Please model this.
Amino acid sequence: MGKWLFGIALLLLIPLYVVNTLNTPIYPDDRWYLARSIPRSYEVAEVKRLFSTVLTTDDGRHFGYIPLTRLSLLPSLRGWNLIEQRLLRLQSVILHLINGFLLYFLTLLLVQYFLLQDWQPGSQRKWLPKHIHGFAVAVAVLFFLHPVCNASTLFIYNRGQLIGGCFFLLTFLLFIYVRLASLRIPGMGAYLSPPARFSALLFCLLTFCCALLSSSAAFILPMLFILIDVIGWTPMDRPARTRSILLFYSAIGGVVLLFVTAYFSVMRYAGY
Model:
């Protein structure tokens, strides 16, 4: 009963948090960020401008190369009145909620993935221990409510953390899902055929590109991929995965190289 009451109490905190966030006024730094970041329109020329410039502060320091984050801001929402301010907050809360859902599914997949370390051929072990869904829900709810995690919804200039976090978690989720779905293990769900895995990895690369264009934190994703592959390198799939892993990391390296080239080109054009 105590565990249920704890879960219900956490869930009841969510609407209180949402109401409090929506009623929080726009900060001066947010007004500066909106004035500098909001696109004038979604015409091709304006999109090109966002992808060829960096966000700079009044004293000339660069805020970052985050064109996708800037594109996520609607031209009509400049935060000048209470309705626009609440709509901006609501966008942030929705993005934060999406990140919580992604973290829930990622928690489930990671637990399954690390349980593979004890797997033996012929084993009929159940791969979802008791209460694992409750654990994943608790992780997601605590992420949604914890002050350190939800601070990004209080400051509009932290929009990059929300957009980048969304693509970050989606990329990591796809990576773990493909790794799991490439194995024929009883109780682990559907097996993905090689063409389906290839399509999923292409989508993973696309979300990785979006994460790079939203937040610089995405640079740690390749290191996480390598760590996961080293830890989860099971004897049963060692020969089959060597080629696909090399191709995947070659593509990841190409994406990072293209982004770094574009980043330094934009910075040089901006005079940094």
